[in-house]
Amino acid sequence: MLVITRKQGEALVIGENIHIKVESINNKQVKLSIDAPKDILILREEIVQEITKENQAATLQTPNAQLLNQLANQLKKKNKNID
Amino acid sequence: MIKIASQVFGEIEVDKNQIITFPEGIYGFEEVQEYVLIGETNEDMPFQWLQAVNGSVCFVVINPICIEANYDINVPDQQLKIIQADATTQFMLVCIVVVPENMENMTANLKSPLVINLDNRLGMQTVLENVPYQIKHPVVQQAKG
Q1: B88-121: per-residue pLDDT in tens?
Q2: With an 8 Å Cβ cutoff, are A61 and B127 in contact?
């Protein structure tokens, strides 16, 4: 784990072609610019955490071979009500 | 044919060419790389199971178009490199469903669909930016009025 201090205007290079620069610092926020190959997905960490949590929540159901039928019935029920 | 110990179906046999490979897994399950889709979809059944070949997990998935008819998304080509896709590739999109105690409140992650390249059976989970779709997108639309 590398912990490093940068001033406004300074940058880091990760690997061969990822550049991160501190564009501005004010009060509680740091603005960063990131230059990376387009096939590298850059996401806010909290989004990744939320998606991870959601994927994990999806596995907690009691496995039940009838579940898909039960879920499909929920949709049919709702459609009936709308019609 | 290979055998899978499924939590849902017990021991099942599937053809090796049904296997979908996720080179980087999905968020939270990066080490699980092989899955099979179980179940046929039709007008009355938009759900399928996405079963891990190693038997560790099994997800309920749904075609997002069944929830949002206009689900028209644009994943940048470069992000699809991991599934070796290009402009001519045939894709399949499915979204992972979370089923709470009250089934009526089930949600699907329309913001991070699973993209499957039908030509080579490689898959990935992508994250869409600037779309009106949610991580907890309601599946059962609430009737208006």
Answers
A1: 888 899 999 999 989 999 999 999 999 999 999 9
A2: no
Interface of B with A in 56-115 (CB under 8 A): 57-60, 76, 78-79, 81-82, 96-99, 103-104, 106, 109, 111-112
Beta bridge partners of B93: B115
ipTM above 0.85, yes or no: yes
| Beta bridge pairs of residue B37 | B50
Residues in CB range of B37: below 8 A, 6 or more apart: B18, B20, B48, B49, B50, B51, B61, B94
pTM (2 decimals)?
A: 0.89
